Fold this protein.
Amino acid sequence: MKRCLHSFIRYNLIRNDCNALLLGVSPRTFSCKDLLSKGRSYASVSAAELQFGQPVHETHPHLLKAGEITPGITALEYSQRRSKLAAKLPKDAIAILAAAETKYRSGAVFYDFHQETNFFYLTGFKEPEALAVIGKATDESDHIFHLYVRGKDTRAEQWEGARSGLQAATDVFNADETGDVNQLNNVLPPIISAASEVFTDIPLKPTPTSVFSRFFSSPSSKSEGFTKILGSSKVRPLKPIINDVRAFKSDAEIANMRFAGQASGRAFTEAMRRTWKYEKDLGSFLEYNIKQRGCENSAYIPVIAGGNNALSIHYVRNDDVLRDEELVLVDAGGEYGGYITDITRTFPPSHKFTPSQSDLYNAILAVQRTCISLCRADANITLDKLHEIAETALKDNLVGLGFDMSGKAIETLFPHHLSHYIGLDVHDTPGYSRKEPLKPGHCVTVEPGIYVPDTDRWPKHFRGMGIRIEDSIAVQEEHPFVLTTEAVKEVIDIEALRS
């Protein structure tokens, strides 16, 4: 059955208050009739025949349900997120967020585009070269939302693919106001000058990360232009405010992470059924299976670390041989609707665990079980406290295996934190404190690991082993919700897969 864009717009206009106000400019009132009329130029055209810069339900019903902007997340939820952010802003303040830019590998060869996650969280818009402005409505009961995007361009779209364009910014993404992103020099100054404060994380000066790039860096024209527009405005960091909103996941967000966790977990279990000779083959199999089961992409570059390669926490070369007498540590996961899952399993690539491998593995697994059981709100516990519990338990278990745990031994053997937050990013809401008590909606990893250097300081039969066991968890009031349970992890279950 055909649905014209006009009916699509009607479905997606989810604001109860149909009055939109320009930020800092003379008020312009819209009625629902006025808003809907914006789509009438398309009224005789099926929405399925139009071209957008990302899937919409009318063009991709196999990916999106009616009312969804991105998989699992509706237009209503995106609006509610913006309202939550606006409610945390001071009176007459605005938040400004920029889309990510296309990054190039060389010449005209580009990397896969990945949207800036705060921008994506508030808009659902998946194209580069876009800017969002969010603030409180005049009566402070709702928010206002401006979205500036690239205009339609037949020649550019022939090379780069479809753009959503200005009309879709209002009709699909529910912006109150839109405009051509190339006209920001004219549009932004009056908005910023009328704002009491500007909350943004757009860098006002370059922040190169390496010695080499710092030496040669110079301000970009874009950063200089934005700095000039801001002028003497009161600029504040947006990150602390948006972290407080993003840290608590909705049911829809958790459902997306559960989907990614289930698909990825099943791919892990399928991989453990087979015999592997090369790290790259195991990695390729996992990536294919994760996508084949419904995930859109890998959540991050996987770690496929055989033998003592596992002693490097972020080993990603994945180019070595897997040897029968050693273990392989695999840290991988899929992404669905932008939401990631994070799983690590350690297992023999072609044999059963040796007694010493099994002993160390079970010592770590016992600690992981204990820590997962505490990922609930009624435990009133923080991630930092969970880490302390893990360190103490690991010390005790390792002493039982003959380790000398004097001095700072635990810092050598367990050099990373037990947990991090997850969501749209693998390390979600950077800067959000691990000292916050876990509450419903927090999503975290639990990943104890032991990495034994090949030196005389440690028992001989454990030297060179690196074992980590990681699951993704959604915190609930009385019990944890394990999002990755399909990835088997008991020694008996892993070995049974090959029997």
The mean pLDDT is 88. The radius of gyration is 25 Å.
